[in-house]
Structure formats: C-alpha cells, structure tokens
Amino acid sequence: MAKRFTLCVYCGSRLGDDPAHAHAARAVGREIAQRGWQLVYGGGNVGLMGIVADAALAGGAPVIGVIPRSLMEREVGHPGLSELLVVETMHQRKQGMAERADAFLALPGGIGTFEELFEVWTWRQLGYHDQPIGLLNVGGYYNALVAFMQQTVDAGFVSDGTRAMLEIGDEPSALLDRLAAQAALSGGRDDYSRT
To answer: Over the stretch 128-173, which tens digit does the pLDDT of each residue have?
Structure first.
C-alpha cells in the first residue's frame, strides 16, 4: 500500500475575529480528506487547530496530533484523533510533525504559528528537508508579512531563492495543488538530526 500524503498544518489555537479564518480552516480540512491525504498538526482541540482536525476527520482522513504534555490542558488535546502523540518538549513536537510531513501549510495564527513557519522555512534553507511550504493568506491576513519578507530581500538579508521557497495563496484548493505538485518533485531527503 502506498504511503499516504501527509500535510502538516500550522495555525492558531484561537479562532481570530474574522469568520473567514475558520471557513478557510474548515476548507483545508475538507480538502485533505477529499484528496485522500492525512493531516499532522499540533494536536489541539481549540481554535483553528480544532476546526482543521474536525473537518479532516469528518471527511474520513487520518489525523495525527503531536502535543507537549504541558499543553494538553491549555490547548485541550483532541480526544478524537487517529493518533495523539504526547511529547515532552516543543522541540520534539515540531520535529515530530516535520518528520511525518510531505508538505507544510501555515494558516492564520499568532506567534506560535509564525515561529513554526519560520523554523520549517529555515530548516528547508539549511537543507534539512526539501518539502514545499505554503502560506494561506486568508483575507489578506499575511499581507504585511509578505511585504516585509520582500523588504528583507530588497535589503540583502534574504535571497530571492529563499523567499521563493514560500508558496503564497489565498485559496486553499489551488495552493494545495501547488504544494502537491512541488512535493512530487522533492527528493524526500530529510535529516533533522542536526536540529
């Protein structure tokens, strides 16, 4: 049996004020299920995290959560997942999610989502993996960040190639199509032993 394509999703443990964010999270979860993929994410049952997981599960997709023991109560570990891995540290959480992923997608979120996105992007720049990374810019939520990243290129701190590693889109289905196409071209070489 072929390995199931696994999408790692980073997103908020809050819902945010714009209902479009929850709508997009639900759409991503449904897309994962419709494509026959599986989801790996931070294991929470709250905010956008819970919405993505519930939508994927409702469509029949396997869902793997990875959550630190210290966050089991705060983020309310999801009781209905296919697999919930409880780890000791945030580093173990992020590495465990990354090791299972064929592609990464960041939805709207706060500083935890930003940190996860930038870390996996840095890991790709350093050659720890070659999986594609997407940013779902729902309702222009990430416009200022996208502009700032161009500023870092213009200022000579980030190369055009590094900036181009981040696929940006505002519609879930089209962005997931691009990530899947790029993932098919990746060499599948992962080495997180240096992290």
So the answer is: 999 999 999 999 999 999 999 999 999 999 999 999 999 999 999 9
Alpha helices per DSSP H over the chain: 19-34, 47-58, 90-100, 111-125, 143-154, 160-164, 172-185
Alpha-carbon torsion 122, 127, 129, 133, what sign? positive
Structure tokens at 145: 């960040």
d(CA 77, CA 185): 34
Distance, CA of 33 to CA of 9 (rounded, Å): 14
Strand partners, 72: none
78 neighbors 50 (Cβ within 8 angstroms): yes
| Cα–Cα distance list, 56 to 4, 148, 192 (Å) | 14, 32, 27
pLDDT in tens, 46-86: 999 999 999 999 999 999 999 998 887 776 889 999 999 99
